[in-house]
Design goal:
The chain is of the alpha+beta class. It has one domain. Helix content is 41%, strand content 16%. It has helices at residues 11-23, 41-48; strands at 27-30, 35-38.
């Protein structure tokens, strides 16, 4: 998995990341080439345990 570090230069991304972590709700990211879902690390770890 690719890791991207978030710093103060990425203010909007940091806000979105904080919202996902605080609310424990995924966010759909829509783009021209496709979509992706941003989830918290704790939710990711929980989903990996269920097969």
């Amino acid at each position: 998995m690719k890791t991207i570090l978030i710093d103060e230069n990425n203010h909007k991304i940091a806000q979105i990341l904080n919202e996902v972590v605080e609310n424990n709700q995924p966010i759909l990211l829509k783009g021209e080439m496709g979509n992706a879902v941003l989830i918290s690390e704790s939710e990711w770890n929980g989903r990996n345990l269920v097969f």
